[in-house]
């Protein structure tokens, strides 16, 4: 049983919300045109970050991944709680962790309002809440046949960094930045409200995360490997190895994958220009279910905890 089967079998029974289990955030009714989006994520030493990661980078990534889930819904960050499990009290570590967390929180205008502290092996859990003051949030379930599939920036950088770390190589500064300090795409997401039909943040790789859009929207997609946006380093790695799995299922990108109908493609171009961001069309939504990847001649195994 993988983690997604486990969730739907044992924990998909909540009620009284606009949207429960199955999207990047749950949505709670606030008033007619306003809803709250809430998400929780845990980062565990040795699973989500290497043992020697600095306190600053751990703090940054812990908050950034929750902000990324808020972004996937088009939510504006409001507040978060922090549950910290620490092996011991290390004042220097705590100072570095706290300062880094504060800097990122300030940057995204999100307040720390509570939490929990206990003793054990290092893990960080953040529950973040944001607000959506538009009639419709960005959902995984809204994709329509004929929509273009877009992704933001480049894919595979963090996964290549992780692979190099595991192989005892030191990744470049640029790859490490993507791995330790991904930029949550909050601004982009807010501009996509009313433009995109569906959206998800890419945490487990494009293959698995786009598949979540497809199953929730009950449709399929064709994507083309040759159109995937790559940094120079990842492009070189692909040339050398033909290992597309780093890009498709490596994970930790924290970019947005979203779908847009033809009538609103011009808005994507405007957003791209205004934000100076790269938004690339990588495929199209089809009536035929499933994900087909043109140019891929092997299977890429996506990360699942179980
Ligand atoms: P993401 O990668 O966006 O953080 P996940 O893959 O972790 O999303 O979770 C998928 C969905 O399942 C989300 O809607 C999440 O809230 C829900 N979920 C995950 N674990 C549990 C759980 N233990 N109980 C209830 N819902 C869960
Ligand atoms: Mg997500």
Q: What distinguishing features does this structure have?
A:
2 domains; 306 residues; 10 helices; 60s Ribosomal Protein L30, Chain: A; binds adenosine-5'-diphosphate; alpha+beta; 5-stranded mixed β-sheet; Phosphoribosyl-aminoimidazole Synthetase, Chain A, domain 2; 6-stranded mixed β-sheet; binds magnesium ion; single chain; 11 strands
Topology, element by element:
Layout: H1 3-10, E1 26-31, E2 34-44, H2 55-73, E3 76-86, H3 91-107, E4 111-119, E5 123-132, E6 148-152, H4 157-166, H5 173-180, H6 186-192, E7 198-202, H7 206-217, E8 220-224, H8 232-241, H9 245-249, E9 255-260, H10 265-275, E10 279-286, E11 290-294
Parallel strand pairs: 3-4, 8-11
Antiparallel strand pairs: 1-2, 2-5, 3-5, 6-9, 6-10, 7-9, 8-10
Helix pairs in contact: 2-3, 2-6, 4-5
Bound molecules: adenosine-5'-diphosphate and magnesium ion.
Adenosine-5'-diphosphate binds near residues 11, 21 and 24.
